[in-house]
Amino acid sequence: MKGKMKKLFLLPHDCQRGFSLMEVVIALALLGLVSISLLSLLLNSYAYRGVNAKKTQLVGLAQEQMESIRAMSYDELWEYACSINPNFSRPGEIARVCSEPVPGYEGMFRSLQLEAQSLQVAGHPVDVLKITVEAHYRSQGSSARSVVFNSLLKDDES
């Protein structure tokens, strides 16, 4: 009985010495597949990190420009718009600063558009300037990315 019990509890490694060639090849193939997928994941995350950094810069640039425009009074902004477009005198007129490169930010551009509008609020006309700030980035081999902010500035006299 003792001999039979011993044969029942023999583990495979007790009968063999080492691994077969097929086991080693399968193990290496699995290890290779896992390594390739992890490398691909790592490279993609690195690429997205760069894209997200550019998006953050775009938002910052657009916010910075919008804040500097919003700090101006209605009259100062109106004069600025008239200096861009001499016909800027009635609702519907647009003064547009074309895309200009942002110093210190390679490949980034920003633009400004001012539009005169007259709105009806509680039956009374209110003159406003619609401010549109856009920041965009284009790099080689990628599509353009942009951020747009809009705001209305009311004439204090209307």
What does this structure look like?
With about 160 residues, the chain is an alpha+beta fold. It has one domain (about 20-155). The chain has 4 helices and 4 strands. The chain has a 4-stranded antiparallel sheet. Strand 2 (about 110-120) and strand 3 form a beta hairpin. The mean pLDDT is about 80.
Which structural traits does this protein have?
158 residues; alpha+beta; four-stranded antiparallel beta sheet; 4 helices; 4 strands; 29% strand
Topology:
Layout: H1 2-8, H2 12-15, H3 21-70, H4 74-84, E1 94-101, E2 108-121, E3 124-137, E4 145-154
Order of the strands making up the biggest sheet:
1-2-3-4
Count helical runs.
Answer: 4
Shape: rod-shaped
* Mean model confidence by pLDDT: 81
Radius of gyration: 33 Å
N- to C-terminal separation?
A: 108 Å
Helix coverage percent: 40-55%
Order of helices and strands: HHHHEEEE
Given as residue ranges, the uncertain stretches (5+ residues, pLDDT < 50) are none
The amount of beta strand, in percent, is 25-35%
* Class of secondary structure makeup: alpha+beta
How many distinct beta strands? 4
- Structural domain tally: 1
- Biggest sheet: strands, sense, closure? 4 strands, antiparallel
Task: Write a compact overview of the structure shown.
The protein has four helices and four strands, in the order ααααββββ. It is of the alpha+beta class and 158 residues long. The chain has one domain.
